[in-house]
Design goal:
The structure holds two protein chains of two kinds. By secondary structure, chain A is α/β, with parallel strands linked by helices. Chain A has a single domain (15-139), classed as Rossmann fold (3-Layer(aba) Sandwich), CATH 3.40.50.12280. Chain A has four helices and seven strands. Chain A has a five-stranded parallel sheet, with helices on both faces. In chain A, strands 4-6 form a two-stranded antiparallel ribbon. Chain A starts with 9 loop residues before the first strand and ends in a 5-residue tail after the last helix. Chain B has one domain (4-413): Cytochrome-c3 Hydrogenase, chain B (Orthogonal Bundle). Chain B has helices spanning 48-52, 57-65, 74-87, 93-122, 125-146, 168-191, 194-200, 208-213, 218-223, 230-233, 239-242, 260-284, 296-305, 342-346, 350-354, 362-368, 392-413, 420-430; strands spanning 4-12, 20-30, 33-40, 155-156, 159-160, 308-316, 319-327, 336-340, 378-383, 386-391. The two termini of chain B are 34 Å apart. The chains are: A alpha/beta, B alpha+beta.
Chain lengths: 144, 431
């Protein structure tokens, strides 16, 4: 897929479910002038109800699991979930803990995994572009 | 009288509120005025200390780095010192200089990051983008020196994992020149902009007495006039030779008021201070080994034999971080590992800061102690028993409206507005 095939602006909601901030600052770095994804209409929004894509960072802690589920339900269809970083994808270095429930895909369905600790902004952008491909297929009624 | 209660979720850090952990505020407000605040942290608690007591010390080192992605060298530096104290491991001088250089680079990136976030909370997105654009320069240097933009994995028990090569010296010096050239502009935008001054002067005041009583640390304490800095008070590594002085607003030539503006001053001056430290370190750094025990199996064997307890403290960008460790002979894993992160000490200073402030000032005051606010925060208002959800957007809009309101006032009353401010206000208004 080429970026020229963007049909609409993409609004992203960022959820930190117990992240260490490493991925979170790289997401902001992707939005600011060096990488500047805002020029493609990709921007962070303040509520999941406005979002097309959920960017989830971090392994899921016990108190955040229910909130993550609720945020997923509040996001209108069609939606895509992108997990940024190793912790969200596999739980990473956080295992054998009483307060860590595990990777994000045990709580909500995930479409794209962006590995890395933390992933570079380029990798995060690539993950979001893959999510766009899925959303456009969904919008066109094609099988995903 | 109308009584409001609201709950505000701010994502801040892990284990202890080092950084981006979801946190809940409960504000009691009367109209626009805040009369009280309750804070409930703990949403991002991952049980890192518990996990650490089940792993060997080198695994614990990597775990400590992931306590916080922004202070990703501060925790390993404190932990390595604690373990080196407990096990009696020496650190070669060159390794100490490299640790200092990387931690000062981290301070520059962290303070610039904070400055951008603070500008965003005021509604000055132009300034956010400007600071984050210049921040990329230090990220490039961190990547060049350590191999990663975040999570550098530099300290190891007994030294550091990577040397700074002679080819890298000019790149670091080039970065220092770049920031020195920009410093005046950043100071102009943040400290001599009438709108920024109007939104931050006498907002979120923490008196020296309160800072002392609440044990505030780092720039939060220094902005209230306490000359308190681990690098000055209990020098470690090579900081003792560098003659570090804690920075307070008096060093800028203004009297200390302990408000958000003073916290901006302190952080900007500390960026300049860190640049001087890095330059000095590059000059003074002796040649030699970078670790006293280069082989990891030998290191693990020595750590397994070690018995005792140790404390490591480090002045992280947000303040003092302390690691305590207890080792027992014959065990690879620590028996006790305790971490005290700076935001844990600074959290309660929110209570006096929020007192008698306006709702529109919540974002900037919350951000002023640098807890790294993220995008999930929302406010829960209960008005006469009726629930009303207020998301961060609404808060930000309130904050922006206030900037605009104040801006028309300061523009009318004086010529101090710089060329940047009208543009930023437009930008803020559109969003």
């Amino acid at each position: 897929m080429k970026l020229t095939s963007f049909k609409r602006a993409l609004w992203v909601f960022h959820v930190s479910t117990g992240s260490c901030n490493g991925c979170d600052i790289e997401i902001v770095a992707a939005l600011t002038p060096r990488y500047d994804v805002e020029r493609f209409g990709i921007r962070l929004v303040g509520t999941p109800r406005h979002a097309d894509v959920l960017l989830v960072t971090g392994t899921v802690t016990r108190p955040m699991a229910e909130r993550l589920r609720r945020i997923y339900e509040q996001t209108p269809d069609p939606k895509a979930v992108v997990v940024v970083g190793g912790c969200g994808a596999t739980s990473g270095v956080f295992y054998e803990s009483y307060n860590v429930l595990g990777p994000v895909d045990e709580i909500v369905p995930v479409d794209v995994y962006v590995p890395g600790c933390p992933p570079r902004p380029e990798a995060i952008i690539d993950g979001v572009v893959k999510a766009v491909a899925k959303l456009e297929k969904l919008a066109a009624g094609e099988p995903v | 009288m109308r009584e409001l209660e609201k709950t505000f979720q701010v994502p801040i850090g892990p284990v202890h509120p080092a950084l981006k952990e979801p946190i809940r505020f409960t504000f009691q407000v009367e109209g626009e005025r805040i009369v009280g605040v309750d804070i409930k942290p703990g949403f991002a608690h991952r049980g890192i200390e518990f996990m650490g007591t089940k792993r060997n010390l080198i695994q614990v080192l990597y775990l400590s780095e992931r306590i916080c992605g922004i202070c990703s060298i501060s925790h390993p530096i404190a932990l390595t010192q604690a373990v080196e104290n407990a096990a009696g491991i020496e650190v070669p001088p060159r390794a100490q200089y490299i640790r200092v250089i990387v931690s000062e680079l981290e301070r520059i990136h962290s303070h610039l990051l904070w400055a951008g976030v603070a500008a965003h909370e005021l509604g000055f997105d132009t300034l956010l983008h400007l600071t984050w654009k210049v921040r990329e320069k230090v990220m490039d240097i961190l990547e060049e020196i350590t191999g990663n933009r975040v999570d550098y994995a530099i300290p190891i028990f007994g030294g550091v994992r990577r040397d700074i090569t002679p080819e890298q010296y000019p790149q670091v010096q080039d970065m220092l020149r770049y920031y020195r050239g920009l410093f005046e502009e950043l100071a102009e935008r943040f400290l001599r902009d009438a709108s920024v001054e109007a939104r931050t002067r006498d907002v979120g005041v923490l008196t020296p007495e309160e800072a002392e009583a609440l044990s505030a640390v780092g720039p939060t304490a220094r902005a209230s006039g306490l000359r308190k800095d681990v690098r000055q008070d209990w020098p470690y590594l090579v900081y003792g030779d560098l003659g570090i002085k804690a920075i307070t607003p008096e060093d800028y030539g203004t009297e200390t008021r302990g408000d958000v503006y003073d916290r901006v001053i302190v952080r900007l001056l500390e960026v300049a201070q860190s640049m001087d430290i890095i330059e000095r370190c590059l000059e003074d750094m002796p040649a030699g080994e970078i670790t006293s025990i280069p082989k990891v199996p030998a290191l693990l064997a020595q750590l397994k034999k070690a018995e005792g307890e140790g404390i490591g403290r480090h002045e992280a960008p947000r303040g003092e971080v302390i690691h305590y460790i207890r080792l027992e002979a014959g065990k690879e894993e620590p028996v006790v590992w305790k971490v005290k992160a700076p935001t844990y000490s600074n959290l309660m200073s929110w209570v006096p800061m929020f007192r008698d402030q306006e709702i529109a000032d919540i974002p900037i005051i919350a951000a002023s102690i640098d807890p790294c606010m993220c995008c999930m925060d929302r406010v829960h208002l209960v008005r006469a028993g009726r629930d009303e959800l207020v998301w961060k957007e609404k808060l930000l809009a309130l904050s922006r409206e206030k900037t605009k309101r104040i801006q028309s006032r300061v523009t009318a009353s004086g010529p101090r507005v710089t060329a940047l401010s009208p543009r930023s206000a437009d930008h803020g208004g559109e969003a």
